[in-house]
Write a structure and sequence with these properties.
The complex is a heterodimer of chains A (114) and B (110).
Chain A (H helix, E strand, L loop, with lengths): L3 E4 L2 E4 L5 E7 L5 E8 L3 E10 L2 E4 L6 E7 L2 E6 L8 E8 L9 E2 L3 E5 L1
Parallel strand pairs in A: 2-11
Antiparallel strand pairs in A: 1-3, 3-8, 4-5, 4-9, 5-6, 7-8, 9-10, 9-11
Chain B lengths: L4 E2 L2 E5 L4 E6 L7 E7 L5 E8 L4 E4 L2 E6 L4 E6 L8 E7 L7 E2 L3 E6 L1
The chains are: A mainly beta (114), B mainly beta (110).
């Protein structure tokens, strides 16, 4: 079974709709992250959480919100989706110290906003 | 600047060596990483190097680190078609999320 899972894997929605992307992990990590990937732009950090009570904005948080429901769950919401939020979204987790605190990624959610 | 820099594309012939280069920004970065993203998949950790090392070898992969120039490279020996992917360089700056480059798309020609 995958350590980091994301649902849904693919989503098509319309402009103005609210949607939620979910991430769950079984790695027991405290830290979780949401990134978006656009072709040629690499990965951009949206939000991150170092524990259940900690939420931090990343470089492109406008238009997004998050909820850390438990150590294992971190959700990303688009309150009112717009076409330029069409992208591939990745959740990641990290824990431990030193090199062990590398980030482990989920398989991604492909979102299309019409 | 603030960005981790990588060239966007690299094309090599099967059996040749590939060298992917990266310039990072923070001389105090403790760990530097290479991730691989295959088509339709998430990022997978390929290898990492601690900042007090100059070189790390792992089977066909060799990582070289030049701290003076803040330059990191990944060499893939005997490149195969299965190595075709996007390769991301990332640096750890203190207690913050990893900072990624934009990725280098490696194409292997049979």
């Amino acid at each position: 079974d995958a350590d980091v899972t994301q649902t849904p894997r693919n989503r098509i929605t319309k402009t103005g709709k609210r949607i939620m992307l979910e991430c769950s992990q079984t790695k027991g990590h405290d830290r979780m992250y949401w990134y978006r990937q656009d072709p040629g732009l690499g990965l951009q950090l949206i939000y991150y959480s170092f524990d259940v009570k900690d939420i931090n904005k990343g470089e492109i948080s406008d238009g997004y919100s998050v909820s850390r429901q438990a150590q294992a769950k971190f959700s990303l919401s688009l309150e009112s989706a717009i076409p330029n939020q069409t992208a591939l979204y990745f959740c990641a987790t990290s824990g431990g110290t030193g090199y062990q605190e590398t980030q482990y990624f989920g398989p991604g959610t492909r979102l299309l906003v019409l | 600047g603030e960005d981790v820099e990588q060239s966007l594309f690299l094309s090599v012939r099967e059996g040749d060596s590939s060298v992917i280069n990266c310039t990072y920004t923070d001389s105090s970065s403790t760990y530097l990483y290479w991730y691989k993203q295959e088509p339709g998949a998430g990022l997978q950790l390929l290898t990492y190097i601690f900042s007090n090392m100059d070189m790390k070898q792992d089977q066909r992969l060799t990582v070289l680190l030049n701290k003076k120039d803040k330059h990191l490279s990944l060499r893939i020996a005997d490149t195969q078609t299965g190595d075709s992917a996007i390769y991301f360089c990332a640096e750890r700056r203190g207690n913050t999320p990893l900072v990624f480059g934009k990725g280098t798309r490696l194409s292997v020609i049979a």
